[in-house]
Amino acid sequence: MRSLINKFQNTMISATFAEAGEWDTAKEMAPEPHMSREPSWLNKVFMAITFAESGLRDEALHFLEPVPTRNRGFNSATLNDLGLKGIQLAYGTVSI
Hints:
By secondary structure, this protein is mainly α. It has a domain at 2-66. The chain is 53% helix and 0% strand. The protein contains five helices and no strands. Helix 1 (2-19) packs antiparallel against helix 2 (23-29) and helix 3 (41-53) runs antiparallel to helix 4 (57-63). The longest helix has 18 residues, at 2-19.
C-alpha cells in the first residue's frame, strides 16, 4: 500500500513540474510507467482531463467513450437480506 501512495505522490509532483514547464524535473520525478497496449480507464480519464484543460474538447470526449458496465454483485439475495423480498430494482448509467 505504501508503494502505491509513493507512486501517486510522485505522479502528482511530476504533474506539477510539467504544468510549470519544468520538463526535465517532471521526467525525473515521474514513476516508471507500466507499459500496456491499452490505457486503463483511469489513464483515459486523466488524458481526457488534459485535453479538456487545453481546450481540445473533441479529443477529450474521444477518451470518454461509454464503457459497458457489468453487474458488481448486487442481486436479489442482497434485497432479501434487507427484508425487501419480491422487489425488483433496475438501474443504469447515463453518459452525457
